[in-house]
Amino acid sequence: MSHALETRRRRTFAIISHPDAGKTTLTEKLLLFSGAIQIAGSVKARKASRHATSDWMEIEKQRGISVASSVMQMVYRDHVINLLDTPGHKDFSEDTYRVLTAVDSALMVIDAANGVETQTRRLIEVCRQRDTPIITFVNKMDREVRDPLDILDEVERELGMPCVPMTWPVGQGKRFGGIINLRTKAMTVFHAGSEKRPEDFETISLSERDKLIARFGDAFLAAEESMELAVGASPTWDHEAFLAAKQTPVFFGSGVNNFGVIEVLDALVDMAPSPRPRTSTAVVNRQVQEQTIQPEDSTFAGVVFKVQANMDANHRDRIAFVRVASGKYVPGMKLKVQRTAKELRPTSVVTFLSQRREAVDEAYAGDIIGFTTHGGVQLGDTITDGANLQFTGLPFFAPEMFMTVVLKNPLRTKQLQQGLAQLGEEGAIQVFKPDAGGNMLLGAVGQLQFEVVQHRLKTEYDCDIRLEGCQYTGARWITADTPQQLREFENAYPLRMAHDAADALAYLCTSPYDVRLAQERFPKIHFHPLREHA
Ligand code: GDP
Questions:
Q1: How remote is the C-alpha of 50 from its chain's centroid?
Q2: Which end of the chain is more exposed for a tag (fewer CB within 10 A), N or C?
Q3: Are 296 and 4 in contact (CB under 8 A)?
Q4: 255 CB under 6 A from ligand 1?
Q5: Which residues contact 213 (CB under 8 A, 6 or more apart)?
Q6: How far is the CA of 109 from the centre of ligand 1 (A)?
Q7: 3-state secondary structure of 423
Q8: Are 242 and 249 in contact (CB under 8 A)?
Q9: From the CA of 436, how far away is ligand 1's center (Å)?
């Protein structure tokens, strides 16, 4: 198969939802129907209690689980589909944002009883910023849920883009009769239970209206009416508009009952985009230039969007998850980390199948490969076969909580520094070194991040630390148009300046007013709530 064809048959998407909406269940059914797994229950078992407690064991388990099942590849209708899971716990939302930079589309799962929930809303914001096309799946139609028109209305409002229904539910809860496929003009009849395969469901053409009315009665008539309203109120399906994140196709179903799922899998093949071009920068004649890298370009290039320390604390090896952006990866290839210009010497290179990791034979744009290394790779790194380019766009968010690190045994200072540097590179936490000296600061978006770091410093680096509260409540990364302006600002706030793990300058604040006042005083300084790896 030609390079272009290999690229074109790939689909890389993230599945996003609020906890309990049915993401794990749907993931499992997608794997099942593509033949990637034989029996249901295996993804579920590994999920354990994903959004459980702050118990250490749970966190450790979670880390193991997320290594095992965060990337899954399947083949369906001759397409290679890469599914990226997003962490369920809100305290790890930073990871989720970064995962979203590695995909070309997103599948949003909504609980039909609850509509768009808080965590989904935050994820939507990120997708919107990046114009990521979104496919919507409204789950749990076998329950007593909200009116589908109501749900569409809410999705439209939250997404800020019109919905185009692709299937439409007939009844719900105990009277859930099935879904009408608006393209094929046929109704698929619902049956509860998780043994059925997609082809086992009965379908009845809409032309047999009398039969449908006789069988489903008022539920069918009501569905006809609401479907007409929904179709009347939504634009016609426009594939280009979907790709530009200007409309979302909506599917209804019940994941746990295998129902309405194959329609989603087909949509991933038929509608979701193949790998898209990515923006990078390159230094040419000492000038930074923007470049667009096409997936078919022959240069191998990829970006590290996630770094995960291995479970084996003795080895200190880590897996760098790389989203291939262009070219073809083959084993033995010589690769370079752009930031350091050093050769990447992985101990193994793996691909992520649904239940196991395997050595990679070849990988193309859209694929995710894992490089196991002993270091030298950090989040946001660009890896190429020699080409001079650096991808942009991997976000770091300004932390909203801060803690001061106090080392219990001062003789372990070196280990602490090493540990914090590595955990910072992994993106587990943000580490700030105050310019004025003193203890290191940890910045997080979620409380659990602190607990993970404290625990890992002890188990992996033998550093006992105490975390103490501090006055800071926020940070902004600082840039200025001239070095002079920057100096003046630094001189005005010497005790507020710090450098993060990537050596970027930040201003620490104690209230939102701080930023406003500083901004008023220094109108030419730029305060960034988000830092992009560059
Ligand atoms: P996640 O937290 O989003 O991954 O959600 P899960 O897939 O673990 O599902 C949460 C709960 O909802 C589980 O108890 C599932 O069995 C249940 N569930 C998932 N899909 C459906 C569905 O279509 N109908 C009903 N009634 N329950 C469902």
A1: 16
A2: N
A3: yes
A4: yes
A5: 220, 221
A6: 10
A7: helix
A8: yes
A9: 51
Neighbouring-strand partners of residue 135 = 107
Please indicate whether residue 181, judged by its CB atom, sits closer than 6 Å to ligand 1. no
- What dihedral angle (degrees, nearest 10) is formed by the CA atoms of 279, 284, 289, 291? -30
Query: Residues, the chain, total?
Result: 534
Could you tell me the distance, in angstroms and rounded to a whole number, from the CA of residue 259 to the centre of ligand 1? 13
Phi, psi dihedral angles at 30 (to 5 degrees): -65, -40
What is the distance in A from the centroid of ligand 1 to the CA of 319?
30
Asked whether the predicted pLDDT for residue 376 surpasses 70, the reply is yes
pTM exceeds cut of 0.90: no
Backbone angles phi, psi at 146, to 5 degrees: -80, 160
C-alpha to C-alpha distances, 30 to 38, 99, 116, 454, 477, nearest whole angstrom: 11, 19, 22, 37, 41
104 touches 276 (CB < 8 A): yes
Q: Is the CB of 25 under 6 A from ligand 1?
A: yes
Q: Is the CB of 260 under 6 A from ligand 1?
A: no
Q: Specify the 3-state DSSP secondary structure of 372.
A: strand
* Burial profile 31-54: b = 16 or more Cβ within 10 angstroms, e = fewer: bbbbebbeebeebeebbeebbeee
Atom number of ligand 1 nearest to Cα 109:
3
pLDDT over 90 for what percent of the chain? 63
ipTM for the predicted complex comes to: 0.99
Whole-angstrom distance, CA of residue 458 vs CA of residue 135: 42
Within 13 A of 364's CA, how many CA atoms are on the CB side? 23
Write out the DSSP string of 99-128: HHTT-SEEEEEEETTTBS-HHHHHHHHHHH
| Torsion of the alpha carbons at 23, 29, 33 and 37, rounded to the nearest 10 | 100
Average pLDDT of the chain, as a whole number: 88
Distance 483 CA to ligand 1 centre (A): 54
Q: Which residues pair with 358 in a beta bridge?
A: 351
Number of H helices, E strands in the chain: 14, 34
**492 contacts 459 by C-beta, under 8 angstroms:** no
The answer to whether the CB of 419 is under 6 A from ligand 1 is no
Look up residue 511 and give its two tokens.
């209230």
The CA distance from 500 to 433, in Å, is 6
Between strands 71-76 and 79-85, the pairing is antiparallel
Query: Poorest-confidence range of 183-187, 219-223, 310-314, 479-483?
Result: 310-314
CB 70 within 8 A of CB 84: yes
Tokens of residue 106, six digits: 């997103």
Lowest mean pLDDT among 158-172, 321-335, 385-399, 469-483: 385-399
Rounded to whole angstroms, how far apart are CA atoms 483 and 520? Answer: 19
Say which range, 81-95, 334-348, 415-429, 469-483, has the weakest mean pLDDT. 81-95
Nearest ligand 1 atom, CA 25:
7
Nearest to 370 by CA among 303, 304, 321, 307: 321
Facing residues of 20 across strands?
Answer: none
